[in-house]
Automatic annotation (TrEMBL):
Alphabetically ordered keywords of this record: Hydrolase
Catalytic activity: L-asparagine + H2O = L-aspartate + NH4(+)
SMART domains (UniProt xref): Asparaginase
Protein name: asparaginase
Keyword Hydrolase on entry: yes
UniProt enzyme class: hydrolase
Domain Asparaginase/glutaminase C-terminal residues, every copy: 223-334
Signal peptide limits: none
Documented EC number(s): 3.5.1.1
Protein family membership: Belongs to the asparaginase 1 family.
Gene Ontology MF terms in the entry: asparaginase activity
Amino acid sequence: MRHVVAYGSDHLAEERADVEQIVVISTGGTIASRWQGSGFAAEARGGDVVATAVVPEGVSVRVVDLMSVNSARLTTAHQLTLLRTVREVLADPSVGGIVVTHGTDTLEESAFLLDLHHDDPRPVVLTGAQRPLEAPDGDGPRNLHDALLTAASVRDLGVLVVFDGQVHAARGTVKVQTLATDAFADPSGSRVGDVGADGVRIHRRPERPTPLPLPSAAPPLPRVDIVMHHCDADPLFLNAAVEAGAQGIVLVATGAGNATPEISTAIHEAVARGVLVAVTTRVPTGPVAEIYTHGGAVDLAASGAVLTGTLRAGQARIAVLAAALASTDPAERVDALRHVLGTPGAPAPGTRA
């Protein structure tokens, strides 16, 4: 098999002779979908999915059938179950890495949540498919082969997304195509590597904050909502989320993170009630930044919102969710969110004096 021993500019994995055990955790998605009479839905077991792929030489596979759902139906409870299962699987020292087969709709969110808590040098690689299990031109078999090879090859890169011959860091990687097979990319960054005929080639090491502790799964789990700004937008939906009991809100702003004075006031009131508010943008590429006032990011930040850099809505929500799971104290949640975002000088969760 191949195992990466160096990083930097285009390092290629070196050969190793021993057999690496990779555990495939099956969660459903298009890669496990079959025709249901009116459309496709996740149905196949993990063994059926693995049987479609060529297993790389030097790799042995064990399958864990965790769930079988279309990923648009995933909940925080599902994702925490996946997180705990990953931790349980890695408790076995004979396991060399994990591949998670997952639906593409919310793969970016599950990958980021796993990455925020991943504290093991062994890789967790998420993959899936844009075409169903039995499609004659299916992309699932290649994606699964590449994910297995990557999981058996790399170390100390955190959680990865492998799709269409490309290796992506969990952070920043989003679904960029609804149907095409090159479904994932980081619009504001570069991919981590590639998988080709000569193996796994790594271009860079992702930057990651210190992993968060495994969160408690005790109910009730925190509600975190997403609200989008647009022409004629008012604070109605943001206030409705607060009244519905949201412990966190992500505002999807315009431009570099801008809204209106009325929304800035609503954020100030929400923060005063202990709600954790984050700001991202509906623009595909680039960071949010404090440039404009009159309801712009300057005012939103002054009202207590935390700007999320280049994270887009789904992953910004996961960042807020992880911070809400890390503490019940509003100030500690802000610290945890800034830590997750990699904000310079942000204290580690639980270290506030």
